[in-house]
Design a protein that fits this description.
Elements: E1 18-30, E2 35-46, E3 53-58, E4 61-70, E5 73-76, E6 79-81, E7 90-95, E8 103-113, E9 120-123, E10 135-138, E11 159-166, E12 172-175, E13 178-183, E14 186-195, E15 202-205, E16 208-213, E17 216-220, H1 222-231, H2 235-246, E18 255-258, E19 267-268, E20 273-276, H3 289-296, E21 304-306, H4 312-331, H5 333-352, H6 373-376, H7 380-395, H8 399-413, E22 416-418, H9 420-431, H10 437-440, H11 445-450, H12 464-478, H13 481-484, H14 496-507, H15 517-526, H16 535-547, H17 554-563, H18 567-578, H19 584-594, H20 600-609
Parallel strand pairs: 1-11, 17-18, 18-20, 21-22
Antiparallel strand pairs: 1-2, 2-8, 3-7, 4-5, 4-8, 6-7, 9-10, 10-15, 11-14, 12-15, 13-14, 16-17, 19-20
Helix pairs in contact: 2-3, 2-4, 3-4, 4-5, 4-7, 5-7, 5-14, 8-9, 12-14, 14-16, 16-17, 16-18, 17-18, 18-20
Bound molecules: ligand BES and zinc ion.
Zinc ion is lined by residues 293, 297, 316, 319.
Length: 613
């Protein structure tokens, strides 16, 4: 595939020559044909004189017309669409008239999306909770905005947008923007803060809301909305805590939308309207950290944005770092460090399983010349990135010194798109005249940014909560069922977070003595796992059941794999099942049965995990 653009290997748009300043979206939502029909009008800023063409990204989009708008007149313009590149899409070339000047240029493109656009998911009434109405949602990160509208689908470019959406009157339309005006069957939106294309988002369904705080609501289908309001009741405290750490919140609104179970991620930081998976509904707020994470993106990612997805750690590593600080403020520093240590166990698992064949993807800064961002996605930018920041924080003298730097960095690069070198430069600038300046030379940047595998240095964390589960997993992996039964040490109460980490640790333990039906039974009864509806617990116990090769429990595992299509859960489950010869045929058969209910990206990745592609 090679590098498509100079600035962004995954986009054709030449942001060094032309940028988008504002986009006006007009969509009519067609549930019968599962298509968006309408137009997008881009106001470009032409940066170079005599520009002869504008290149945009598209994917399976049918362009009807391209029109240049100038001085009240409309002039049709020639356009061409290139052949598709797998996982990337196509290049839309818009030909400009000779002598096009620098500055503003308005182009409207009339088009419709494909019925199977990779960035959209269309649900039939039967696939919703209420069973009465259809539902539609988008997921544009990393490079699916191009399947929703022709655009400069690169985070190097940021634009404001407004939108007019025509939809069935009985449904509610929401976007990553504030609602400007509501008419019957027509909703107007406005996002006045410039955002990258991957943050354009829409959802339409039979939705209701409950208040969570000032300018903050949770949206969901009626049947679960009260449970959602309860589960996410800490949202306004999290928002307050986040702005104490990062600075003022600029997005005006912070709503949550609890998605249908086929939503492929835990959360997505769409501005003004975070999307979250319903698998967070554990009943005890224990998984609400994901909301803290998405809130943190309001600064790290949405205000300061990675210029391309090779520098994705600037989005996710920083966000995990801030998320852990929110957790620290709300639950104490022991919890913060426990979270960081647990993350490192998950990273180990990721390196061992998902990335075992692609060591180059274990680098903090990756090369996406020949790899789509979806294929490169892993825990590495999250966990190695946040560990790097914690290492730097400790090196420069702890939170009291580093948090002011963090705020300075966010302020400096707010509304911009940056690369790793910009971060490095800001750090040097900030500390060069301080007492800490000698520390700058102590950082082995090449090792951190370009080294493979686990982080080269593990900072010193408070291990008190982690040691409990380390001892516990030691006990469970070295003792027989007989030795464990009636052992008082296994009965000591531990928190849900510790239970999750404990099971994760067991999954990462090489040798487990007597991992059999009895041991799994004892595990489940000791920690009340049989009744638990906590998806993080279910996920891990299911992986242990697979490891114990308990074929009699395969139905249960398949049931879990069908209960949601969050990739974090279904990918490892399918991968584990694919490596179990007795179970693989059932896994494949089940996947083929349900894959049309998955978002296309999820279906494609699981297909690869199962070795079907
Ligand atoms: N922005 C990501 C989700 C994402 C990343 C979507 C790349 C598409 C491409 C979001 O903020 C995220 O990281 N979600 C995590 C939760 C988090 C607590 C680690 C998830 O989905 O599990
Ligand atoms: Zn994130």
């Amino acid at each position: 595939m090679g590098r498509l653009g100079k600035v962004d290997p995954s986009s054709y748009s030449q942001s060094e020559l032309v940028t988008t300043e504002h986009s006006a979206i007009n969509w009519k939502v067609d549930f019968a044909d599962t298509k968006l029909r309408g137009s997008v009008q881009h106001r470009f800023n032409v940066l170079s004189s005599n520009l002869d063409k504008i290149l945009l990204d598209v994917r399976d989009i049918e362009v009807k017309n391209a029109t240049l708008l100038a001085g009240g007149s409309e002039v049709p313009i020639n356009y061409f669409i290139s052949d598709p590149v797998a996982d990337i899409g196509q290049k839309l070339t818009l030909e400009l008239p000779a002598g096009t000047a620098k500055g503003s240029l308005n182009v409207r493109i009339d088009y419709e999306t494909a019925s199977n656009a990779s960035g959209l998911q269309w649900l039939k009434p039967a696939q919703t909770l209420g069973k009465q109405h259809p539902y539609m949602f988008s997921q544009c990160q990393s490079i699916h905005a191009r399947s929703v509208m022709p655009c400069q689908d690169t985070p190097a470019v940021k634009f404001s947008y407004d939108a007019i959406i025509e939809h069935p009157t009985e449904l509610t339309a929401l976007m990553s923007a504030v609602i400007d005006k509501k008419e019957s069957g027509k909703t107007h939106f406005k996002q006045s803060v410039p955002i990258p294309a991957y943050l354009v988002a829409i959802a339409i369904g039979k939705l209701v809301s409950r208040p969570l705080g000032e300018n903050s609501n949770v949206w969901a289908e009626e049947g679960i909305v009260d449970a959602c309001a309860e589960e996410f009741s800490e949202t306004s405290t999290m928002l307050k805590t986040a702005s104490d750490i990062c600075g003022p919140y600029v997005w005006k609104q912070y709503d949550l939308l609890v998605m249908p179970p086929s939503f492929p991620y835990g959360g997505m930081e769409n501005p003004c309207l975070t999307f979250v998976t319903p698998t967070l509904l554990a009943g005890d707020k224990s998984l609400a950290d994901v909301v803290a994470h998405e809130i943190a993106h309001s600064w790290t990612g949405n205000l300061v944005t990675n210029k391309n997805f090779e520098h994705f750690w600037l989005n996710e590593g920083f966000t995990v770092f801030v998320e852990s600080k929110i957790v620290g403020r709300m639950q104490g520093d022991k919890e913060l460090d426990f979270k960081m240590l647990s993350n490192l166990i998950d990273l180990q698992e990721c390196l061992r399983c998902q990335l075992s064949g692609t060591p180059e993807l274990t680098k903090l800064v990756v090369d996406l010349s020949n790899c789509g961002p979806d294929d490169a996605f892993s825990s590495v930018p999250y966990m190695k990135g946040s560990t790097f920041l914690r290492y730097l924080e400790d090196l420069f003298g702890g939170a009291a010194v580093f948090e002011p730097f963090l705020r300075d960095y966010l302020k400096k690069f707010a509304y911009k798109s940056i690369e790793t070198d910009d971060f490095k430069g800001a750090l040097y600038d900030y500390f060069k005249d301080s007492e800490q300046k000698d520390k700058l030379t102590a950082v082995d940047w090449d090792l951190w940014l370009n080294g493979e595998g686990m982080p080269p240095i593990i900072p010193k964390f408070d291990e008190s909560l982690a040691n409990v589960i380390k001892d516990l997993s030691n006990l469970w992996s070295t003792k027989t069922v007989d030795q464990l039964t009636n052992n008082p040490d296994i009965k000591k109460p531990i928190s849900v977070h510790q239970q999750i980490a404990f099971l994760g640790k067991l999954i990462e333990t090489k040798d487990i003595v007597e991992l059999n039906e009895q041991k799994i039974d004892l595990l489940e009864s000791t920690y009340n796992l049989k009744q638990s509806k906590n998806a993080e617990l279910r996920f891990r116990i299911n992986r242990l059941i697979i490891r114990a090769r308990l074929i009699q429990r395969l139905d249960e595992i398949i049931k879990f794999a069908n209960s949601n299509f969050r990739m974090k859960f279904c990918r490892p489950i399918y991968r584990d099942l694919a490596a179990w010869p007795e179970a693989k045929p059932r896994a494949v058969e089940n996947f083929l049965k349900v894959k049309d209910e998955m978002m296309s990206m999820c279906a494609h990745t699981v297909e690869k995990d199962l070795g079907l592609k």
